[in-house]
Amino acid sequence: MTRNRLPRGVWLLAVARAVNRLGAFSVPFLAALTVARFGASPVTAGLVTAAFGVATIPSRLLGGRLADRIGRRRSIVLGLAGCAVAQLAIAAAGTTWQVLAFAVLLGLVYEIYEPASQALIADAVAPADRARAYSLFSAALAAGGTGAGLIAAAVGRWDLRWLFVIDAASCLACAVVVRRVLPLDRPLRSGTRRDGPSPWRDRALLVLLGTGTFYALVFTQVTVALPLSMTHSGRSAADAGILFTVSAVTTVAGQPLLRLGRLAALSTPVMLASGCVLLAAGFTGYAFARGLVPLAVATVVWSLGDLLIFGRVYAAVAGIAPPDGRGQYLSVYGLSWGFAGIAAPVTATQILQHAGVAALWTSTAALCLVLAVLQFVLVRPLLPDVSPDEGAVRAEPVPALQD
C-alpha cells in the first residue's frame, strides 16, 4: 500500500508549532510567579491558575467557531497574538488582581489556535493520511517540549517574569511564520445559518468526546502525578523530567511505525483499543518498576500506545465532521482536555496521597483496559469498522496547505 506524501504546508505548520512549543513553558509557573512576586498564599495562587484553566474551555469553543467563520489562518494568528499580549501583560502586572485578570484573558485566547490548526490539516490531507499528519503534529509539539523544560530551568532561576516574555515572543514568532508561509484560506461557511447537524447532536462525536475525556484524564494524570510519584518512591522529582524526555523521543522516533501497511490498515476501534492496551502495560510497569531503566522501558511502552491513539482519534473526529464544520467538531472534541485538566489534579493527588504509587498506576492501567473495551462497545457501532484507507474520498484541498 502506497502512503501519500504529506503536503509541504503540513510540515511548515508543524515546524511553526514546534517553535511555539519550545517557548511554551510559562503557564506551569503562573502560580509560582503569583507567590514570588506578590507574596500571595499558595491557595490564592492556585485560584489564579484554576481561573486560567476554566477560561480555556470557552476558548476552545470560540476557536472552533472562528476557524469555520473567518478562516483557519486568521484564527491561528489571532489566537497566537492574543496569547502574546496576555502573557506580556502578566509579566508587567503590578498586583495579584491584575495577574488574575490577565490570567483569565490568557485562558480565553489560549486555545483559539488549536481547533484551527487541526481543521487546517484535515482540510488538506487525504482521510487515509490524516492519522499520520496529526501524529506528526503531536511529534512536533513533543520535540519542542523537550527543549522547553531546559529553557524554563535556566530562565526561571533569573526572573519568572521573563518566562512569560519569552513565551510571548515564541507566540509572535509562530504567528509571523503562519502569516507569511500559509496563504489566506477562505472560510468554508458563509452567513450565519449552520448547514448540517450540530456537533452537540452528533452521537458519534459525543461518544468520542466521552471516551476521549478519559483518555485525556489518563494522559494529564501522568503529567501531574509522575513527578509526585517519583518523590513518593524515594526518587528525585527530576527523574520525571528524564522520563518525559524519553516519552517525547519515543513519539518522534516512532513516527515511521504509522506508515507500516498492516498497522495503518487496522480499523479505528482496533487501533484505539491496541493503543489503550499499550498504555495499560506501560502504567502497570510504573506500578512495579523500581529502577530508572525499567521506568524508562515502561515509558516507551505507554508512549507507543499514545502514538497509536492520538493521530487516529483526531482523524476520526475530522472524518465524521462536515467540511464546513470541522473547526467546531474538533473544538468540541478538544473539550476533553479541558475537562481532564480540571479533574486530573484532583484524582491523581487523592489516589497518590491515600493509596500510594502502586494504586495510582494500577488504577490508571485498569482505566485504560476499560477504555480498550469501550472502543468495541461504544465506538465500533458508530464508526465504520474499516481503516481510513478503505473507501475514503480525498478531502477537498484547501490552498493554504497544498504544495
Explain what this protein looks like in three dimensions.
- This protein is an all-alpha fold and 403 residues long.
- The protein has 2 domains: 7-127 and 144-187, Growth Hormone, Chain: A (Up-down Bundle); 197-390, Growth Hormone, Chain: A.
- It is 75% helix and 0% strand.
- It contains 15 helices and no strands.
- It has helices spanning 8-22, 30-38, 42-69, 72-92, 96-110, 113-124, 130-156, 161-181, 203-232, 238-253, 261-264, 268-288, 292-320, 326-355, 357-379.
- Helix 2 packs across helix 3, helix 7 (130-156) crosses helix 13 (292-320) and helix 9 (203-232) runs antiparallel to helix 15 (357-379).
- The chain starts with 7 loop residues before the first helix and ends in a 24-residue tail after the last helix.
- Residues 191-195 and 390-400 have low confidence and may be disordered.
Summarize the structure.
By secondary structure, the chain is mostly helical. Helices cover 75% and strands 0% of the residues. It folds into two domains: 7-127 and 144-187, Growth Hormone, Chain: A (Up-down Bundle); 197-390, Up-down Bundle (Growth Hormone, Chain: A).
Key structural traits:
about 400 residues, Growth Hormone, Chain: A, 15 helices
| Distance, first to last CA | 22 Å
Query: Which segments are poorly predicted (pLDDT under 50) over 5 or more consecutive residues?
Result: 191-195, 390-400
Structural class: mainly alpha
CATH superfamily of the largest domain: MFS general substrate transporter like domains
Supply the number of structural domains. 2
> What is the radius of gyration?
20 Å
- The helix count comes to 15
CATH topology of the largest domain: Growth Hormone, Chain: A
